[in-house]
Design a protein that fits this description.
The protein is an all-alpha fold and about 475 residues long. It contains 21 helices and no strands. Helix 6 packs antiparallel against helix 16 and helix 17 crosses helix 19. It is globular and about 65 Å long. The two termini are about 40 Å apart. The relative contact order is 0.19.
Length: about 475
């Protein structure tokens, strides 16, 4: 079977790719975003604890599935399809594609919003000038990808190194500057007097904690280009642990440098304000330089990811076959072009609604929660059937059950902790996918369009939620961004 590029990737290129997917704008905003969402120190720590347990369980689900199901390459949608049928698998693929596209939109808004601090013409990243410039960059990337995706993957490794160095330097500077103060860290530890209960504060951390780990499955998604799926699984685990430690350290240090209310009031990127408090104005300048490097690299990485998120499902018969067509450079022409066109649509919508960076990444986050949840459900189903437990010791079998159960619970928790407004907006993203699904099923000409009863139920629920969301949008109850 043909691939997006014939050269097979080893462990370190896949680790760089997964880190490149995750290490982007979120690291520069997480301190301020936690506080702005209403989470005080204790709630933030609990949120991190839930995230570590849930995400490591989800990561281990991907790792185990990559070993026991080596035939299911490009895993995040193929797992859902193998476990629950064509329509549920399609929704997983569609949701992942939409999440990657919206993440790319978020990075464009963040990039030009950061430039807006120097050149007012860019504003908060959604002015007409910003959108025009974003479009130019987007289509330059498209031209590059048309030359072959492998070229982009190699460049990504260097970009990851370039943006990781200043971030690590910032952590070291914060530690050795002696700016962390225990009394600030524990002041109003539980948020006494806040309008939000501790439980509500913990729920408020969900978008930030999930957002900064979007891309955790990046190595698994492009596992077709790995030497084998086991290597893709290892890359996923390594990248998660490394970045979790980095994120937690940055968050904890920030809460000991500035009081909650000051963190909440920081502009974007909030880390610039924290670093200014630690080492002076040059610290803020350093952060902004790192932001440009990081987000610039993320833009390129996510153009690749958007392409793979469309091509992979098409190559496996999940999306319409047009998305799997390639040019003479072995690049998936229509996957690249259609992804770019949808990004353009969302960029225009962001401009019209003057969307904030946080609103954009909330949509990306809610879109990917369903694919994550379905992957964990499939791991649980495989445990129940014994498919992933063959050849394991009793102790290992127990751990696989634990990972699958916790991963599934965490998947449900992610949706529960999200607001109903964003769940409804999520229906606006998922329901149009039914059109592409029907096109693909007609291409296959293989039985009814919705083969299972629960397929029809899910489709009807999505349509009802879509109509309800449109009504609420019309009367201003909810907003698309």
């Amino acid at each position: 079977m043909s691939k997006i590029g014939e050269k097979k990737l080893g462990l370190f290129p896949l680790v760089f790719f997964a880190i490149g997917c995750m290490l982007a704008s979120g690291v520069f905003t997480l301190s301020g975003d936690f506080a702005a969402a209403g989470a005080y120190t204790l709630a933030t720590i609990i949120g991190w604890g839930i995230t570590f347990i849930g995400m490591i369980a989800l990561t281990m689900c991907y790792y185990r599935l990559s070993i026991s199901k080596p035939d299911l390459t490009s895993g995040i949608y193929s797992y859902a399809r193998a476990g629950f049928g064509s329509y549920i698998g399609f929704n997983s693929a569609w949701g992942y594609w939409m999440s990657a596209i919206l993440a790319l939109v978020s990075f464009f808004v963040a990039f030009f919003g950061n430039l807006g601090g120097i050149f007012p013409v860019f504003g908060s990243g959604t002015t007409l000038v910003s959108i025009i410039c974003a479009s130019v960059i987007l289509w330059l990337f498209v031209l590059l990808l048309m030359k072959g995706v492998n070229q982009a993957t190699v460049i990504n490794a260097f970009v990851v190194i370039a943006k990781a160095i200043p971030i690590v330097f910032m952590v070291i500077a914060a530690i050795f500057a002696g700016s962390f103060h225990w009394d600030i860290f524990v002041d109003n530890f539980t948020g006494a007097g806040s309008d939000m209960s501790l439980f509500e504060q913990v729920k408020a951390t969900i978008f930030t904690t999930v957002w900064i780990f979007i891309g955790i499955e990046g190595a698994v998604v492009i596992s077709e280009r790995a030497r084998d799926t086991k290597i893709a699984g290892r890359a996923t685990v390594i990248s998660f642990i490394a970045l979790f430690l980095l994120y937690f350290i940055i968050s904890a240090l920030s809460m000991g440098v500035m009081p909650h209310d000051e963190l909440a009031a920081l502009g974007w990127p909030s880390m610039a304000g924290v670093m200014t408090a630690i080492v002076g104005p040059w610290g803020g300048i350093l952060v902004n330089v790192a932001v440009f490097i990081s987000i610039g690299g993320a833009l390129f990485t996510y153009v690749i990811l958007c392409t793979d998120s469309a091509f992979g499902p098409a190559d496996k018969g999940c999306f319409p076959s047009i998305f799997s067509r390639k040019n003479k450079n072995n690049a998936p022409t229509y996957s690249i072009i259609f992804s770019a066109l949808i990004v353009e649509v969302f960029l225009i919508l962001a401009m019209i609604s003057d969307a904030a960076f946080q609103n954009c990444y909330y949509l990306s986050t809610i879109s990917i929660m369903i694919p994550y949840m379905l992957s964990a459900f499939y791991a649980l189903k495989c445990c129940a059937n014994g498919e992933t437990l063959q050849g394991l010791s009793a102790g290992r079998k127990t751990w696989e059950w634990i990972f699958a159960i916790i991963g599934s619970i965490y998947g449900v928790w992610m949706l529960y902790a999200s607001s109903i407004a964003y769940v409804l907006v999520c229906a606006l993203l998922y329901a149009p996918g039914i059109i592409l699904y029907i096109i693909r099923r007609k291409e296959e000409n293989d039985g009814p369009i919705f083969p299972k009863i629960y397929d029809k139920v899910v489709a009807v629920i999505l349509i009802v939620m879509f109509v309800l969301a449109i009504v609420l949008l019309a009367n201003g109850t909810i907003a698309p961004f």
